[in-house]
């Protein structure tokens, strides 16, 4: 009995140890430490040093690095021990497998806490917080995962002149590139976590979504959580889940009806008093074209004739389209046809594009037999679409076996008919003459 309970305790201890070493510690994050070189004028020269972050989720867990050799070629002052209770720095996509060439991107910069001036974040610092907590070294870290989908930004605090860092604010998205069809709801994913034991945490937070495209920008939504107030914006159909924001840190943006005009870059910013962190998300609206082909069906054609077919693609976005033409013969064989030309594009009110292609078929030069299907193929990032029209060619020289057999059958039939008629005619003639003979008697 005593033995088994000792074993049980040992097993528990071992499990706990494994959890501490492997479960609550994350592999090392390699980073570039980028800062302005001191004493340089404008433009500021930047220095870039290799850096390492040993990350653990809880300050109680043992340090993973104690089992490892100190790395070579890295300045010891750029080796950090980061406690990240949010666990966001532990995401597998931030750690390349051993020996892998592909590396996640990571950059650390010095960060200067400052009151925010934007309307929805200004109330956070209005009360005038004792700045003692802010007297520390602050850093911001920006990371991009291996799959290019995870983006993460953290604000990290170090007690003066130590390399023990604590994540205070983390903002991340697990889909940095979103592709959506037209006219459907689309969610731009953004989450945040704040250190609840930080004195900044009780003072509230603010959320802001901005939109940027080709140098233009606008506010999409902004929310002041301290006063539970949404900012006035001109944007319609863009929503935050306010209760989710408070309960789980879900700052995702819901666009109710994806339109071409939504294409662009979205910046999700979370403000804490004096701090901010942001991630950017790209949204692409990808809608494949609808095709129409004309004339359909094609007028019955003769060898030697030249016919023109037009194919119109409409309602697509982005403007990236390639047309191909194919001919499918009666025997099912596919033959590419030379593209006749392509029109310029037009843009509809909803932002989608239309464009046409035409094909000229010279039946004097092309041998298309007795016809088949002429197919227009439109290749678009949203998918390939195709549509067909029927081509019938008559009077083709060199009849097929079926033709010959049909002709023989017709000829035989005709012959039979003529024979029958002439027989009936002679029969009728002889009956008439018989009766005339009788009358004469
Ligand atoms: C997060 O918020 C978005 C936008 O309101 C919502 O569509 C989504 O379902 C939420 N996600 C979770 C896991 O609650």
List the helices and strands and how they pair.
Blueprint: H1 2-23, E1 29-36, E2 46-56, E3 79-83, E4 105-110, H2 123-126, E5 137-144, E6 151-158, E7 164-173, E8 177-180, E9 186-188, E10 191-194, E11 206-213, E12 216-224, E13 229-230, E14 238-240, H3 242-248, E15 253-255, E16 264-272, E17 275-285, E18 290-294, E19 306-316, E20 322-329, E21 334-337, E22 341-342, E23 346-347, E24 353-362, E25 371-380, E26 383-392, H4 401-440
Parallel strand pairs: 1-4, 2-3, 3-7, 8-17
Antiparallel strand pairs: 1-2, 4-5, 5-6, 6-7, 7-10, 9-15, 11-12, 11-16, 12-13, 14-15, 16-17, 18-19, 19-24, 20-21, 20-25, 22-24, 23-24, 25-26
The chain binds 2-acetamido-2-deoxy-beta-D-glucopyranose.
Provide a short characterization of the protein structure.
The chain has four helices and 26 strands. The termini are far apart. It is of the alpha+beta class.
Report on this model:
There is one protein chain. Helices cover 17% and strands 39% of the residues. It has 441 residues and is of the alpha+beta class. Strands 1-2-3-7-6-5-4 form a seven-stranded mixed beta barrel. It has a six-stranded mixed β-sheet with strand order 8-17-16-11-12-13, with no helix packed on it. Strands 18, 19, 22, 23 and 24 form a five-stranded antiparallel β-sheet that branches. Strand 20 (322-329) and strand 21 (334-337) form a beta hairpin. The longest helix is centred in the C-terminal third of the chain and has 40 residues, at 401-440. The model is unreliable at 1-22 and 431-441 (pLDDT under 50). The structure holds 2-acetamido-2-deoxy-beta-D-glucopyranose. 2-acetamido-2-deoxy-beta-D-glucopyranose is lined by residues 187, 241, 244, 250, 252, 254. Residues 187, 241, 244, 250, 252, 254 line the site of 2-acetamido-2-deoxy-beta-D-glucopyranose.
């Amino acid at each position: 009995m005593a033995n088994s309970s000792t074993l049980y305790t040992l097993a528990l201890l071992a499990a706990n140890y494994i959890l501490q070493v492997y479960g609550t510690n994350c592999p090392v994050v390699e980073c570039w430490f980028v800062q302005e070189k001191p004493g340089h004028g404008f433009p500021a020269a930047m220095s870039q040093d290799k850096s390492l972050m040993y990350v653990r989720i809880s300050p109680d867990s043992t340090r993973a690095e104690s089992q490892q050799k100190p790395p070579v070629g890295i300045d010891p002052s750029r080796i950090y021990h980061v406690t990240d209770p949010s666990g966001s720095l532990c995401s597998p996509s931030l750690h390349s497998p051993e020996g892998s060439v592909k590396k996640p991107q990571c950059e650390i910069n010095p960060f200067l806490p400052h009151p925010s001036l934007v309307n929805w974040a200004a109330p956070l610092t209005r009360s005038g917080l004792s700045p003692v907590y802010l007297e520390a070294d602050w850093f911001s870290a920006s990371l991009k995962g291996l799959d290019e989908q995870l983006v993460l930004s953290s604000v990290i605090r170090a007690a003066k002149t130590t390399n023990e860092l604590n994540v205070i604010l983390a903002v991340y998205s697990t889909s940095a590139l979103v592709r959506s069809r037209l006219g459907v709801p689309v969610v731009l994913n953004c989450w945040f976590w704040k250190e609840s034991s930080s004195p900044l945490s009780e003072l509230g937070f603010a959320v802001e979504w901005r939109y940027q495209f080709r140098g233009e920008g606008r506010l999409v939504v902004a929310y002041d959580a301290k006063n539970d107030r949404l900012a006035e914006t001109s944007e319609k159909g863009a929503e935050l889940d306010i209760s989710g924001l408070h309960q789980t840190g879900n700052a995702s943006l819901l666009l109710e009806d994806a339109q071409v005009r939504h294409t662009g870059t979205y910046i999700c910013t979370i403000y804490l008093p004096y701090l901010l962190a942001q991630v950017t998300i790209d949204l692409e609206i990808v809608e494949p074209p609808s095709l129409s082909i004309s004339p359909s069906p094609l007028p019955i054609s003769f060898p030697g004739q030249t016919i023109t077919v037009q194919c119109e693609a409409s309602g697509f976005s982005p403007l990236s389209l390639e047309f191909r033409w194919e001919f499918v013969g009666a025997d099912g064989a596919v033959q590419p046809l030379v593209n006749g030309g392509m029109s310029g594009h037009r843009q509809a009110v909803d932002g989608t594009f239309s464009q046409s292609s035409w094909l000229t078929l010279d039946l004097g030069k092309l041998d298309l037999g007795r016809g088949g299907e002429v197919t227009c193929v439109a290749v678009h990032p949203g998918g390939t679409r195709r549509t067909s029209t029927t081509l019938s060619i008559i009077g083709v020289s060199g009849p097929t076996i079926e033709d010959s057999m049909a002709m023989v059958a017709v000829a035989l039939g005709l012959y039979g008919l003529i024979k029958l008629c002439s027989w009936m005619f002679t029969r009728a003639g002889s009956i008439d003459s018989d009766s005339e003979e009788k009358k004469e008697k």
